[in-house]
Predict the structure of Acetyl-CoA synthetase-like protein.
Amino acid sequence: MVFLTGSRVPDLDPPVTCQIHLSVEELLAAMTPCSADVNEIIPVERPEAGAYLCFTSGSSGHLKGVLCTHGSLVAFRKDHEVRLNDSLGRRIAQYMSPGFDGSIHEIFSALSYGATLVLRAPSQKNPFSHLGTADAAILTPSIAAMLDVNDYPRLRYAYFVGEPVSQRICDSWAGHKAVYNMYGPTETTCGATIKRLQTRRPVTLGSPNPSTRIYIMNDREQLSPLGMVGEIYLSGIQVAKGYIGRPKETESVFLPDTNLPHYGESMYRTGDRGYWNGDGELVLVGRSDRQIKLHGYRIDLNSLETHLKSISGCIDAAIALRDDYLVAQIQPAYMDPAAFTKQLRDVIPAYSMPRYILPVASLPLTSAGKTDYRAIASHDYGGSHGPVAIPETFGARLVQEAIRNVFGLSPGAVINMTADLFHFGGTSIQQLALSHKLSQERKYDVPIGVLFDCSSLQELAESLESLDESTEGNHAAKLGDLGVSPTEREWLHKYSHKDGSPAFNVHFACTIDAGIDAERLLESWNIILSRRRMLNSHYMIDADKCASIGYRGSPPRVREIGTVDAIQEINTLINPFQGPLIRSVISSVTSRRSSSCSRKSDCCTIMSHSRPLRSRTPRPIGTHPHPMKIAFWKDHLSNYEMTEFSIGRIQGRSNWSGSSSFDEIPDNTLTSMKEFAQAHNCTMHQICLASVSLALQYRTAACDIVVGAPYLNRHSEEDQNVVGLFLEPLPIRIRYPPTQHGSHEDEENVSFIEHVKLSSRDALAHAMPWDQLRTHLGHKAQLPNQSLLDVMVTYQEPEHVPLSGIAGLRPMSVVPGGAKFTLVAESTSSDMGGLMLRLEYSDECFGSKDITTLHKLIQIALQGIVGNREYRELREDLRPVHM
């Protein structure tokens, strides 16, 4: 292969795939006049022959040579608008670097159709001076942002390439010039789509060029429906043959066109994500490699940049990942970073806030005119907007000491008070611990909602100084070693009601590979069971019907049996008054000591109560909730009456009987949910809440339903060391449209998902112990019917699935019978990318046909919500399913 440059550069090494290095200057100097008769030269058409070799911009870190053919180049330039509106006498600026395929577009558009290629004069220091004498030019949006469109009155056509076009750039240029948005990677011969942009109209990529086919496909390489986000694949004659000298990389992205195989053409996997809108135009969402996971949160950097650019006065912005935090540069240089940061906190979640924000005159650019994210990430931000000196107040000292204690920092560690909890990698457990630590120091309850509402540690410090101290002294009561918490009492009451139900069994079952030493596993297991006294506990009821904890003489041990029926085992009830509250079983299909044994099966059913690991450590109980919380819940749940569902039957249950039904959510729907969550700053759980609520009440003109969400019942620092699940329900009331329910004025125009997000946030900010909430509201459960709510919605990420990802251990998908609530919608995301929806339902309220229909309703609701459908449209989408 040959490496061709404009001139010989001594210190420029050619790519490893090129054995020859030539320069245009050397070739011209070595040329001799041609003696042959030009008229005798007969051209030969070879459309499959290579026309030019171009190297990608290297965003992946490796330059890759792409060979494009004569046929692909000619096909690309058949359309007049695509080839820069060229014609005889028209002047086309040559601005793009020869190493960028945009220069191929400039050169061939001008010279193939009689136009003039306008070069920048070497004497001109201004690299844009020749644009003033041109009729058409290709620019990157980053370059266009630096130029004043009024400086180039002759320029009629501007083509933006290489980067997403912001609405601001579109509006500033499209009012003066004919502006086109062109999209297409190097691997597909310059361009695949073109769109004439208009001011104040949404920016899209338009429709495919006549010589290109575009597919939106999911992770299984299946076509995605209209409106669903997927990966962009390009197919047709313009697709290159692959990367020179890189067969493995070629094989991974240059694939056979499986959608139209009879053409015998390839399709290129771009790595870009997008969807088809209602007008049949392609909308670019961003690149897959611009989606990151930081401190456990998924962040779309492209979406985040859009929020930065929305701040008043910001001309342009770019954000990059540096180590384990984000950095940003904004234009113009005179912007006040402190004021910018304050505004930004109102539009983005705290975990996505950049640690440093640097105002600059212009963003760094690559040689191809694109934003240089590597330069942004590696910049020295020592003097940028970061840690700021904060007045040393009582609240500030309190927060700093609590932060050092909870996050294990040294006593002298400097705390950036302008930062937020997410800069410390704060998890929900650490937030609870911080809430408890601050409550201890202040001698009254510091609600976790205060932590959520404060956008910085300084704001948290100020809040602590202004909090009402009406709950002072409420940490005196202690649970002790034998006492039973309110959550345990409720569980015990439910488990004992009408002989109980296996639905309350918390279990884990898995298969174990033969490579694991079963003998040592059994020995270790028994050691653990013997060390934890609370695993040997049981409940006792005295004559006054008061519950307490008792302990058996000998610890529980693992049972070894020849064969085990996992379903039967997890459906076997445990007697809470005899104990132990944990049952462990290990079995093998053949003899456990047989050398031919290839697999062992381990089925473990766990029932544990909420007791500290160090059982003598007392923990506080009975703290009174803040009056503001009580007032919120009385208002939030006032006048609520459980209404009929659009499917199934609302009726009083007489027992715990129930079943479970599974359904797999398509990968493309899951991907769209994640991208929607990023774009709208909501959680996956909130999307699930919205879809289940809509599916249950889509026939009513207005939605009014209370749905439960699991809330971690860990109200103290000691609680963090408790073995046991004991999640409490957090009631979330969803009333939509809000105008029909006396809502605040600022809620009247919000979308359905935005309303669900606000309702979920408010409920979490005012969370209080379940037993206290029911007491203050005067609700009492009539088992097996629950009070306040009878529907639960949960969502689990892969990292929350017990023991997932351990080599040699494969969890078994088994569930106990029965139903804890009328309906539980449990969505579980796997580390393989799938999403499983389990519906646990009461047999008295739902039939099997109802549940089959409900699965369909939830899926359609999910697709409509992430497809930005209006509430009225969502309800209409669901009607045909249940007719």
Notes: The radius of gyration is 33 Å. The longest strand covers residues 266-276.
